[in-house]
Amino acid sequence: AAASKGAPRIVITASEVHDPLSPGGNVGLGAGLGGLAGLAGAGANFGMLDGSAYNADKAYKDSKLCNVLFARELERRLEARGSPVKVNSFGPGLITRTGFFRYQNSLFVKAFDFATNELFHVAETVSGGGDCLVYMVTNPALEGTGGLYYNNDLAPGTPTGHKFEPAEVSVEARDAAEAAELWRYSEQLVGLTA
What's the rounded Cα separation, in Å, for the pair 192 and 194? Predict the structure, then answer.
């Protein structure tokens, strides 16, 4: 795709696992920030944003929910200031061959990689995930448009087995008050003021 010469864009990488109702998000504990009780109670010493004990899988899912909330709040703030910069987020799909799982049990990693890539054909390639980012940054169809979430969904029968398209974010990711509160806590944690 040819690079856009229009307004600047900010693109935030997220994942469909931000939504506890999505196929990847409903395995194990789902994303959910619990009203940010962890930040409210422990500040920078929180275990999990919802105040629960640390769980690596849930932490990853929560981080992707935070990314979507961040993108939506940044878009709102820029829009309110009349900025031409547009902010969108996207999920590139399940990409297993990046070293992301390097700290997991090696037998699990090999089995998971084989199952997702060779048996069920649900994983995306590194290149395919990168193409999603390129689309978000350069495609003229997104010119002047912010606040969107695109997801790389499964599409059996297509050449790649995936279809990159606009998607709804989770119910919690649409919570404007929570997005603003997360922004406020983030400012405090990094030493910025509003």
Answer: 7
